[in-house]
Amino acid sequence: MLSISDAALRPISEVETGQAVPGQWFRVRARLSRRARILLAFASILLPLGLWSTVSYVPFIWHPDMLISDPGDVDYFQPGMRVDKAMFASEIANAKTNGTAPPVGTPANPVYLPAPGDVLMAFYTSFTTPPMDQNGLWLHQSLWQSIQTIFWGFVISSMIGVPLGILCGAHSAAARLVEPFVEFFRYLPAPAFSTLCVAVLGIYAGPKIAIIVIGTLFQQILIIANTTRKADFSLVEAALTLGTKNLRLLTKVVIPSVLPDLYRDQRVLLGWAWTYLIVAELVGASSGISLFITQQSRYQHFANVYAAIAMIGILGLGMDLILAALGRKLFPWDRSAS
Amino acid sequence: MTKIPMPDTTMSYLDQSDAVKERLDRLKARDVILRVDRLTKQFQAGKNQVTALDEISFETHRREFLCIIGPSGCGKSTLIRILAGLETLSDGQVLLDNRPVNGPGRERGMVFQGYTLFPWLTVRKNVMFGLRMNNVSRFDAEKQANEWLDLIGLKKFADYYPHQLSGGMKQRVAIIRALVNHPRILLMDEPFSALDAQTRARMQAYLLEIWKKIDITVIFITHDLDEAIFLADRILVLSAHPGRLQELIEVPLERPRRLEHFGSAEFAATKARLEALIHPPTEGGEDEAYPSVPLLTDVRDNVE
Fold first, then answer.
1. Which of A323, A332, B53, B139 gives B243 a disulfide partner, CB atoms 3.0 to 4.6 angstroms apart?
2. B242 prior amide bond cis, ω within 30
3. pLDDT in tens, B250-302
């Protein structure tokens, strides 16, 4: 007797209806209701935030240090200083045996883990705090500098990478000529070229943009070429039987047919460019948000550091969401977008 | 399909009524549009040279409706793709209006099984595409596209995108997208096989309606015998491995074709002949009976 597993016989219609039945969340590729999707999206932000808040605000969880409010008679303690609990306990014991005034303090996390509230405050205060030296930049100016670096790096990379990628995707001869070299080059880490870039392009914006271009371009050529290669060939054949020739085949059929996918690729690659930002800005004369971050961490203003890092994430995500919405407007016929 | 009464089996598919004979004679008196001369297609499969099509020769006359059928693997799709210029031939030649065919061109329109409408263009722009590629002005192209869309009753859908249409609508657009270009010949590669039975029947009648009204020669590939008999003036039957021409059958049915023809003796005789050609009683291969399936369940109730 052959037994057919009953999972195979179970009707799949209940999955298809989109009504959330709790157990179904765990099914492979289960369809979720709109409410469930929104709920999960919030949870994906709130869960790590909740964890962070718990560690920060519940005094008996972790808190390995003591924040000194009154040093007592301990001569090397100062108000606002953080010492680890063992040292604090031993100084209290010393004070007890010597009869001197014991130090007073509250349990605290290390300086590198500010509480969420402090970071939230820093979002505002870091914009209102004037730069530390006269020639320094306000935070909004630093951010603007970073955005410009990303913008020009990505634009220059795209101006070369997109046409070259499309060419490689459409013509095998071009692909064979270009891709082996690109395949090799894309494994070279972009920061390795920093000194070379400074030597050639100076210390200001030039080398920074170059690093972003080096980091993005070679991936871009390959990704765009692969997407172009996936163009539906039956559409090309249909166009051929309608009398389409040569260059028009590329501009009127191949490119339009992969345009939404190319657009998606560009969004992914823009994210890629952001990840090279910090390294790029430390090349030559530091600039932009990276300069702000390094300065703030030097003064141990870690709340500001976290806020600045979060700003990069928010900027990147915000830009991507805008581009995604724009994509839906631009390609109303593209069903894989929605 | 409804049960049809058993037809008169003494009838031969070669018997033609006077009306049919007269119409076919008229057809054969017309100019030859397409001449296929000892067309051979070979390709390399690993180390072996495989002959897909072996010395195929036939002619089609102007305004003929020719169907090509054959068992799977007979190379009928390869044949029509060679006619379209999408594939090269190894030997022989294809002449359209006495000029050799070399690569794809607008004088041979094609309708594919998978619609192949351009998803980024609206219905109207899909129809305009061929005209625009052949340097017709935007204004004229739009005018002609609108006329054709009106003709097939899809004017309302001119600004829709292909994904918003049903399969039958898509294929109607694909047909006029090819026809608006004024091809000499329309090549159709199993165009209705992705459609449901009802839509397919309507599309067949509709295609005949269009074909009747304009000056177009149709070569239509199908694996559906009923479809071939219903549509064609003549049916070209291919055999498989290698693809060879078996017989060119003249369909002994009158026009206009009607659904009643499906029950006629001529229809049954032609179908019997096609069956015999395509599924000869052989041993082995696909025709061998599948092994009987043992009872796989312990339930006692019989489903039949």
1. B53
2. yes
3. 999 988 898 888 889 899 999 999 999 988 765 555 556 678 887 777 767 77
CB contact under 8 A, B133 and A333: no
Same domain assignment for residues A287 and A318: yes
In chain B, what are the domain boundaries? Answer: 9-107+185-278, 113-182
pLDDT one-digit tens code per residue, A211-247? 999 999 999 999 999 999 999 999 999 999 999 988 9
- Which chain B residues have a beta carbon less than 8 Å from that of A329? none
Q: Are residues A185 and A303 in the same domain?
A: yes
One-letter amino acid at A334 equals: D
Same domain, A70 and A51: no
Q: Is A40 on the interface with B (CB under 8 A)?
A: no
Q: Is A49 on the interface with B (CB under 8 A)?
A: no
Angle of helix A139-170 relative to helix A255-275, nearest 10 degrees, comes to 140
Residues of B in contact with A1 (CB under 8 A): 296, 298
Same domain, A104 and A133: no
- The reply to whether A246 falls in a domain is yes
- The reply to whether A182 and A296 lie within a common domain is yes
Residue A35: give the domain boundaries.
13-57
CATH number at residue A181: 1.10.3720.10
Q: Of A79, A113, A147, which residue is a domain's last?
A: A113
Cβ within 8 Å, pair A2-B112? no
CA distance B97 to B80: 17
Q: B residues 251-280 near A, CB within 8 Å?
A: none
Instruction: State in words which class domain B9-107+185-278 has.
Output: alpha beta
Using a CB-CB distance cutoff of 8 angstroms, which residues of chain A are in contact with residue B86?
Answer: 237, 240-241
Chain A residues inside the 8 Å CB shell of B109: 241-242
> Distance (Å, rounded) from C-alpha A251 to C-alpha B133?
12
Cα separation, A288 vs A274, whole angstroms:
13
ipTM, 2 dp: 0.88
User: What is the rounded distance in angstroms from the CA atom of residue A201 to the CA atom of residue B273?
Assistant: 81
